[in-house]
Amino acid sequence: MKSYQQYCSVARALDSVGDRWVLLIVRELLAFGPSRYSDLKRGLPGIATNLLAERLKAMEADGLVEHREAPAPIGSRVYQLTERGRDLEDVVRALSRWSLPAMPSGPRPADAVQPQWIALLAGLNLAGNVAPGAELVLLIDTGDAPVRARLRNDGFGIDRLSGDGEDVALRGDAVLVGGLLTGLLSVEQATELGLTITGHVDQLNDLIAATQAGATA
């Protein structure tokens, strides 16, 4: 990316993250942690493989991403955020919250929808209000391959593993799941509109309420 060539902190930041796809690569690495090239490509529909390689190379040069060779059974190169790259979590959180008013209208006709993007809402908005030492595991199934969001007070993780173990399962339209996780819909409203919620619903309700209370304090 060409530099703005301005001695300004905003311009300097955009020199590193203002190019197309960069913050979405950060999004995927925040969601899943260390990821193979093929995993990143899967989570970035529409990006050309040569452009992804170019962006990763530039992000490594800027100190946002690093790679390592993973041991068996993965046995391939994986990419992960550096400490400086992880500092962008607050930027992604702020952008996510800023864009919430545009989300209730639902996906546009050409929009892709992947469950980890919805799960990321839970990680960015709710995890910080989980009780210290506790963990809340959400299964999010929007019709594609389900994912799990593991929410802790000190962070979150998302995985594609199947099996039992979630505290709460959310199954239904991505708009309804996202509306619930961001407090735009109550549990009652979401279920009336068709969202299926099973498990310890009271725990999720309490977490959403605590998050909303913190936002208005």
From TrEMBL:
HTH hxlR-type domain ranges (all copies): 8-107
InterPro entries hit by this protein: HTH_HxlR, WH-like_DNA-bd_sf, WH_DNA-bd_sf
Protein name (record): Helix-turn-helix transcriptional regulator
Annotated GO MF terms: DNA binding
Keywords: DNA-binding, Transcription, Transcription regulation
One Pfam family of this chain: HxlR
Signal peptide interval: none
